[in-house]
Amino acid sequence: MGGLACAALLAWYGHDVLVCEGRPTPGGAAHVWRRAGYRFDCGTSLFFGLDWQGGPSQSENPLASILQLIDERVDVVPVPDAATCLVWPEESFRTHIGSDKFGAVVRRLWGQRAEAEWKAFQKRAEECAPAASAIKPMAVRFDDLVAVTTVGRSPGAFLKYLRGEARSMVFSGLMEGTVGDPGLRDFIDLLVRGTCGLPSDEIVASYMIQAFAQLYQPTSALEYPVGGPQAIVNALVRGLRKHGGRLALNAHVDEVVVGPRGQAAGVRLRDGRTIGASKAVVSNASAWDTLRMLPRQAVSAKYRDRVAEMIPNNSFMHVHLGFDGSGLDPLPLHYYMFDPELVTDAGWPTICVPSAVEPTAAPPGKHVMHAYISEPYAPWRGLERRGEEYGRLKEERCQVVWNMIERVIPDIRDRVEVEMVGTPLTHSHFLNRFQGTYGPKNLLKMGTLPEAVCPLPGLYCCGDSTFPGAGTPAAASSGMWVANSLVPIWEHWGALNALGL
Ligand SMILES: Cc1cc2nc3c(=O)[nH]c(=O)nc-3n(C[C@H](O)[C@H](O)[C@H](O)COP(=O)(O)OP(=O)(O)OC[C@H]3O[C@@H](n4cnc5c(N)ncnc54)[C@H](O)[C@@H]3O)c2cc1C
């Protein structure tokens, strides 16, 4: 997502762009595959603000800005009310996105006082939101000229951002004096951990406020792309090609070629070909994978230390199912398992049923499901993907995911027609990711040093190893910022004009 966002935007800016994708399908964590008429995905399933309606985008999602510039649409279906089901150890029920209806959920769970606290918390977040989102992602670039595209272009907005109390506060600060109920506090903390992998007392408030502002406003609604997350990927690829860019598949990069002045001068592919880059090389691989592609002497100790300091988040156990839906009540799109024993830094256990809202995901009368839970890499280290020991561990570790699924559809085993189980090794292999990790756990704590995105002259990094981290909007932002940094200020200014920002 980061690399394609960057590439599509660079092609729109008029650069000659080649994307080298190591896998046969573009999209990384957003790619899909089909089997027996079912469409399976890697997990990305929560979307908002993708549809820019053919006019100036009001969306806070940076992907919408890129789609608008490259003039590509992603068809979406609105996710109907009550398509989210929260599953607690004792009970489960449907909930809604949008603050009013969610207030009723809070009342049911923790009582009237908690509901009033939730509303006060919402109000506080709402008051902070204009300042927190005053700087538009498209205005960001990684050089001093960022002062021109942010402060120079919209001094009022920048001042608003500076004055906003959320800028220097951690998210839990927003709860002080508003949320006293321990259940509600834990729940908010859980949402924060699930959204960005950090507890609420370690995450900058402005980052989370934007997420809350987007998801819990009275008018908030989720949407789902027709064709799944691949539809976003395909739109970016169309935009790339339309503007003269190229996409090479099965083009795994083994090494970044470093020129005589210590600059990134191209890439060497696994098949031995070398491709030169006159302007820049952009890596969308994780920081650990990028480091492996660089000759040791070319990289500063500072960058090496930074990567060494990064703590990889867990990977996942995945269960993908195609199953018979006869006789089932309408299923929700998401089940979130709010069992404190299962929730980790890497998010809450999730069951997603895309066919509940988007019928092309499964044959008529059938459903497709992806259930996953965070899983450490360590037990899998060194195992052969087809070996006996691997098979035994896979069988053992997927039971907890099966238990989750049986909790919501008790006779699921009788309904299954297609079944695939994924492990951290699957995730690492098919997504080309170090240890199959979700991304760095401590990224937001590490600050945004220039070496993080530009470890050597001419080499830029984007994707979820760079700020602001994981999630399709965040990865796309990082790609957008690299693209903006590679063009002169007047072209960047032109893009902001074209978007009406
Ligand atoms: C289970 C799960 C659930 C998720 N849910 C959501 C969600 O609901 N909403 C949301 O917005 N986000 C979600 N995400 C996160 C989101 O999908 C990712 O953060 C985002 O897609 C990552 O994009 P990226 O560009 O950083 O990296 P990737 O998607 O990993 O892309 C990197 C690309 O680089 C390629 N590559 C790597 N190394 C090389 C090499 N050496 N040579 C050539 N190519 C190479 C890879 O093949 C891959 O295509 C979820 C992720 C997971 C795993």
Automatic annotation (TrEMBL):
A GO molecular-function annotation: oxidoreductase activity
Ranges of residues in domain Amine oxidase: 1-484
Coiled coil regions, renumbered to chain: none
GO biological process: carotenoid metabolic process
InterPro entries for this protein: Amino_oxidase, CrtISO-like, FAD/NAD-bd_sf
Record key words, sorted: Signal
PANTHER family: FAD_NAD(P)-BINDING OXIDOREDUCTASE FAMILY PROTEIN (PTHR46313:SF1), PTHR46313
Protein name, as recorded: Amine oxidase domain-containing protein
Leader sequence segment: 1-22
